[in-house]
Each structure stands twice: as C-alpha cells, then as structure tokens.
Write a structure and sequence with these properties.
globular; 352 residues; TIM Barrel
Length: 352
C-alpha cells in the first residue's frame, strides 16, 4: 500500500463507516483514485462460464450498489466487477447505523437490507457502462414483495441487455426469510423463473448463484443438485455469515452479516465441499476473508476459478487488487504451475 493510500484510509476510518463508504464512491466517480493497470499476464487469464477474465480478482457485490462508480472501478485493476444488489423497486433498506467496522477482527458487519435505487435507475447506468470490463449485477428482491421469486426474474429482464453475468442472491441475512429461498423446492422454482427471463433476452447471460456460508452438508448437496438441474453457470461461495465465533471487537454482537478475516475458514470449507460435490465441473467463485495473495490462492486451490473482494478493500485499499495478482504469480512460481487454472482444486482436501 502506498503512503498516499495509507493516509487516505486513515482519514476514511475516522468517519462513520457508511459516510466513508459514500465518500469512497464519490472519489471514484470524480476520477480521484489513481489508475491501476489491470494485470494481464497470460498466466492469470481465466475463462469462467464463458467469460474471459484478464485476471481472477473481482469486486464483490455490495460495494457499488447502484452502479454509480463504474468508470472509476474499471480503472482499479479488477478482472471483473459485480454491482448491486438491485431490486425491482427502489428501497431505503434498514435504518442507520447499519455498517460497522471491527478492526480488532479485520472484519465488517452490515445490515443494509438491499438499499438501492431500483432496477430502472440502475439499468440506465449499466447502459452507459465503460467498455472493456466484465460486468455483472447482483439480483435481489424487495422486502415487501408479494412474490419474491418473481422479483429476480423481473430485475434480470430489466437489466440483462447490459450485463455480462447476473447473480441470484438468496443468501443475504439482512432481508427477513430470504435464506428460506435456498431450500431445494423454492430455489428450483426461483431459478426456473430466472432462466425463463434469460431466454427472453437478446443474448445469453450467464447466471450465477450466491449462497450462504451457514449451510449444513445436506443443504449444500441440495443446492449443488438444483444448480446442476436448472443450468446455473457458476456458484459464488459465499455471502456473509450470521456466526460470531471467536470475535473480540466491541462491535461483535451487532446484528447483520459478518464479512472479513473471520469468514475465510468457513467460506473456504463451503467452497471446497462444493467443488467436491460438483466434481469440479461447475465454475466456483471464492469470496470471504481474502486480504492476501495467499488467501486468494487458497481459494483457487480449494476449487475456485476466480475470487471476489469487498471487506479486504476496507483495510487494504484498492492497491490490494494489484498486490493480489502479483502475489498469485509468485504462488504459481513457488508451486511449479505454468497457469493459474492448473492450481484449481489441487488442495481441496486440505480445506474439507
């Protein structure tokens, strides 16, 4: 991390977390964040669900909920971006405060509740997206919706023409009963509706599924089977957790979803188990607790084809993106792999 970036983070960390988040987005929109060249070593290039990624390090959903900072984020060196979540109608989300840093645990707790400007406004921004970036949207549901499953299909229908991929988010802990949609019957019906909406788009958009880390083995096996049967193109493992094991920060008991370093081990176990259940045939994206190149590489070795960041940026800044990619190259050299794809799943059993 540069001296300038370290100083900037120190200033942001003196502010209320949600205020600081908003300021970071404003800086990105204004082009005041230094441009970072995208790491394009052929050794790091990955193909995930038909998408050509210049490197495997992506931005997780939640950072840019409303797709307002796409140009700035496209300059930050990511291999792909995911924005949202978007819901059919605008909603304000849960009351503030709803974002909490846990510096003692290198973690964050949020209970935003799918606050966003709505699919229509977000679709207009996606239509003006910068060129040369792989861009996806996280699909959500309105809190007061009478048909939550239909919401996902509606958002995809409204935005799909401007996307490279779409993610079905049934794993946020901050919308009441949302995780009930991870049950086999409900999930199958929801995904069938999304796939029908996709069929009506002018071109095929890969559909990803984002799951929770708080699943037992039988539930995980059901999800893997439903994903296979419905034609899901990739699974993102995982969203935030409701667990609070081992935390020490005074804010540890705030309600909401926990992300950051404490999520690394449980999310990587879920990732490895999914890789086993799908026999490595379904692309997986590893999320949760990544703050070093070794963390990112562990996700790859557990079965991921790519990774995503959010909380790591809170503590490591945007310079973390390039650092991870350079570090991944060093990991490949150390282990004797010519290409990053050669490392996928090579140490899966170590995480089970």
């Amino acid at each position: 991390m540069s001296v300038l970036e370290r100083a900037g983070l120190a200033i942001l960390h003196r502010l209320d977390p949600e205020v600081a988040h908003g300021m970071a987005l404003r800086l990105l929109r204004a082009g005041l964040v230094p441009r970072a060249p995208t790491e394009t070593s052929p050794r790091l290039r990955m193909q995930v669900a038909g998408l050509d990624l210049p490197n495997p390090v992506g931005l997780a959903a939640g950072f840019d909920k409303n797709a307002t900072a796409l140009a700035g984020l496209a300059r930050a060196g990511f291999g792909f971006l995911e924005v949202g979540a978007a819901t059919p109608r605008p909603q304000s989300g849960n009351e503030r405060p709803r974002l909490f840093r846990l510096p003692a645990d290198r973690a964050v707790i949020n209970r935003f509740g799918f606050n966003n400007d709505g699919a229509e406004a977000i679709a207009a921004r996606l239509a003006a997206r910068p060129s040369g970036v792989v861009l996806g949207l996280n699909l959500g549901t309105n809190k007061d919706s009478p048909d939550r499953a239909a919401d996902y299909a509606q958002v995809l229908a409204m935005t799909g023409a401007h996307l490279d991929f779409a993610t079905v988010n049934v794993s946020s802990p901050n919308t009441e009963a949302l995780r009930d949609l991870q049950g086999a019957a409900a999930l199958r019906a929801l995904l069938d509706g999304v796939m029908q909406a996709r069929a009506d788009l002018p071109r095929r958009v890969p559909v990803f599924l984002k799951i929770a880390p708080d699943l037992d083995d039988s539930a995980l096996a059901e999800i893997a089977e439903v994903a296979r049967a419905t034609g899901v193109d990739a699974i993102i493992a995982t969203n935030t957790t409701t667990a609070r094991d081992g935390l020490t920060d005074p804010a540890r008991n705030q309600p909401g979803g926990l992300s950051g370093a404490p999520l690394f081990a449980p999310s990587t176990r879920i990732l490895a188990r999914l890789s086993e259940l799908t026999e490595g045939k379904l692309p997986l994206i590893g999320v949760g607790g990544i703050s070093t190149a070794e963390d990112a590489y562990a996700k790859i070795c557990a079965g991921a084809s790519a990774v995503q960041l959010y909380t790591g940026l809170v503590y490591g800044g945007l310079g973390l993106v390039g650092g991870l990619n350079r570090g991944l190259l060093a990991c490949l050299d150390r282990d004797g792999h010519a290409m990053l794809k050669d490392a996928i799943g090579t140490r899966r059993d170590a995480f089970l």
